[in-house]
Amino acid sequence: ISEMNIDDFFKPLVKIDDWFGEEEKKWANDAQMLQNLLTDKLKHIQIFRVGRIAIDIYLFGKAEDCLWVGLKTKVVET
Predict the structure, then answer these.
(1) Given CB 3.0 to 4.6 Å as the disulfide criterion, which of 2, 20, 62, 77 pairs with 24?
(2) pLDDT at 78 over 90
(3) CA distance 45 to 35
C-alpha cells in the first residue's frame, strides 16, 4: 500500500501529446474535468494504491456535508 497526491495521480491522465487524436484529447479533457470537480468539491483528498501490477486505486475526500466520499478504480502497470 502506498499513498500519492492527486496531482501525481492525474498527471499522466491529463497530459496531451502531439500524436493524440480527438478521442485521446477528449479522454484527457474528461480526466481534467474530473480532477477539477474533485478538488473543488472535496477537502483532505487522499489516494491509496494497493497492489503491484493490477493496482487498486482508492480516492477519498471529505465533502461539504463532512461525509467521506470516494472512488475506486484499477490500473495495470507492466
Answers:
(1) 20
(2) no
(3) 11
